[in-house]
């Protein structure tokens, strides 16, 4: 192996080049996709303890001309690295708020809230607050129905500044959910200062909640913590009746997951709503 070290290096080097080339190609396609409207939102219902649909989380997908539907894991990290997450996230927010404004005029849908994922990079952009308020103005959406899902990684930035921005948005009626809760590295003392109204139990705890005693303890602790702080606790990634039952019995407030519905295109989601009303 030592003798061929140099060849290995060249081989490795060309592998790196392949990866770099693929990234550059994806970057060009991503920018093109945004300018030519290739992104869509899917809607996943969120239900209360009586299984009533109380809202949706919007999840972005890339409808690629030749590669079909691409999931966010394949493009969000790159979009974050090249800053494209800012216009992409703004597009998602604007599209979601436009939908909110439409539903507000429909009596059987006017109660729905919409949760939009906001990347930490997007939130930390200097004009984020102004951009959100501009979207609310442009679309006419009710800010009280808008929920922004942020993650604990937001605490890596200047916490005072983050809280200030959140409070400004909150004064307009916008609320916050802490996504993927329990997977981050945040200290509880910071956490309790964040003006969030909801905790989302990460899917990784829900998955094995019935079989892994540690995950069961985590899930129950998050629910108790949320209760103590006066927050709504939502479980994500609920796939079975048994998982829902366990979380329900331990006083979880709201649920989301394939057990209720996968994320759906708009038409299918509206049909789902009509059938579950
Ligand atoms: P997330 O915010 O934690 O979203 C939940 C993910 O779990 C979604 O994956 C959803 O499709 C999936 N999921 C929901 N229920 C279940 C279930 O019962 N079982 C399993 N196995 N999975 C379930 P998706 O749509 O692939 O999104 C992945 C991540 O991409 C999201 O994780 C979020 O972090 C990010 N993302 C999605 N849309 C946006 C967006 O508009 N902006 C930003 N910044 N990030 C987004
Ligand atoms: Ca989320
Ligand atoms: Ca999540
Ligand atoms: Ca996640």
Shape: globular
Strand content: 15-25%
**Helix and strand succession?**
HEEEHHEHHEHEHEHHEHEH
Structural class designation = alpha/beta
The helix content, as a percent range, equals 40-55%
Which assembly state applies to the chains in this document? Answer: single chain
How many DSSP E strands?
A: 9
Report on this model:
It is found in: Cell membrane. This is GGDEF: diguanylate cyclase (GGDEF) domain. Residues 23-277 form the EAL domain. The protein is an alpha/beta fold. It is built from eleven helices and nine strands. It has helices at residues 5-35, 76-81, 85-104, 120-124, 128-139, 159-171, 188-191, 203-207, 213-228, 241-249, 266-275; strands at residues 39-47, 53-64, 68-70, 113-117, 146-151, 175-181, 198-201, 232-235, 254-255. Strands 1, 2, 3, 4, 5, 6, 7, 8 and 9 form a nine-stranded mixed beta sheet that branches. Strand 6, helix 7 (188-191) and strand 7 form a beta-alpha-beta unit. Helix 3 packs parallel to helix 5 and helix 5 packs parallel to helix 6. The structure holds ligand C2E and calcium ion (3 copies). Residues 179-180, 200, 236 line the site of one calcium ion.
């Amino acid at each position: 192996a030592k003798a061929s070290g140099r060849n290995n290096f060249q081989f490795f080097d060309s592998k790196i080049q392949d990866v770099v080339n693929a990234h550059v190609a994806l970057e060009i396609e991503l920018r093109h996709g945004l300018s030519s409207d290739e992104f869509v939102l899917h809607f996943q219902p969120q239900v209360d303890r009586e299984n009533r649909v109380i809202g949706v989380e919007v999840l972005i997908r890339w409808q690629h001309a030749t590669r079909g539907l691409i999931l966010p894991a394949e493009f969000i990290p790159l979009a974050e690295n090249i800053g494209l997450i800012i216009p992409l996230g703004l597009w998602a927010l604007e599209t979601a708020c436009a939908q909110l404004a439409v539903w507000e005029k429909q009596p059987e849908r006017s109660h729905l809230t919409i949760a939009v994922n906001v990347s930490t990079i997007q939130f930390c952009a200097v004009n984020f607050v102004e951009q959100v308020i501009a979207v609310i103005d442009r679309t006419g959406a009710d800010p009280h129905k808008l929920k922004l899902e942020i993650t604990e990684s937001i605490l890596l930035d200047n916490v005072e500044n983050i809280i200030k921005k959140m409070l400004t948005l909150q004064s307009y009626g916008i609320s916050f959910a802490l996504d993927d809760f329990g997977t981050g590295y945040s200290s509880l003392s910071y956490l309790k200062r964040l003006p969030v109204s909801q905790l989302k139990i990460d899917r990784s705890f829900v998955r094995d909640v019935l079989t892994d005693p540690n995950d069961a303890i985590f899930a129950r602790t998050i629910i108790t913590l949320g209760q103590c702080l006066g927050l709504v606790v939502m479980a994500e990634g609920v796939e079975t009746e048994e998982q829902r039952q366990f979380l329900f019995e331990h006083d979880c407030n709201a649920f989301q997951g394939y057990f209720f519905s996968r994320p759906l295109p708009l038409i299918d989601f509206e049909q789902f709503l009509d059938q579950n009303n």
